[in-house]
Amino acid sequence: METAFIEACRSFIEPNRFRLDEPMKLHTTFKIGGPADCLIFPASMEEVERVMALVKKYDLPLTILGNGSNVLVQDGGIRGVVVKFARPMGAIRCEGARIIAASGALLKDVSESAAANGLTGLEFACGIPGSVGGALFMNAGAYDGEMKNVADRVRTVDANGTVHQYERASLDLGYRHSAFQQNGEAIVEVEFLLRKGTEQDIRAKMEDFTNRRECKQPLEMPSAGSTFKRPAGYFAGTLIDQTGLKGLTVGGAQVSTKHAGFVVNIGGATAADIRDLIKEVQKRVYAAHGVRLYPEVRIIGEP
Fold it and tell me: Is 298 an annotated catalytic residue?
């Protein structure tokens, strides 16, 4: 890591938000991952602008993360700089029918804010364990809702440290896809355009979704959420279950016995364990059903 880069960042980033050789297992919901050379938690758009400009100036590799809930960081860790949007950049405010959230805000907090202000449309997000930025990046969704339906405006910072604003039509949101998977810009703020509703009805729907999740998903185990994308015409979890793979284990990685669509860390799992188990599931499901499964989880870093 460039000494000049470190010194420049330390001039405006608080010590507790700038870490070297930081184990990423502490910052992902899988509880897996080798060290990041440099991990930064920005607290404002201005800090993001300055960090992005410095990363470009010193020609360093850059990885942008949200809550770490849809990623598998490999055992060799991540070279260069990791910018992680978390609580220091988690402001949420309401303006009329809009909820405006910084990228580090958790989806559950944003949906709670919407409910408290009598705004409907974000109920589906109440149990998704992600941040606003990560959810927009992947067009996260659940229970027939998705970010595509409610995200109306997005602010980003590009590699030069320049701020951009995107309107709904430019977001290119599709199944687990957004424009930001190609352009490399850091999402810093999302505006949600919602509809007026009654808080009682909104909270009833949120409670229903929460109960369904708690009954069906292995929320008590470290995971990255749904492991596989939904294949056309099928459900990944159903195919895996029908292949008899619930409980299949490689090292500390296991196909959940509660929901076959989840690979979980049952204790001490390495990223290699998770990768090997994913490959085995893919192979067996294809042999049994002729359907190819592709990971929804982003695999990043070095083996």
Answer: no
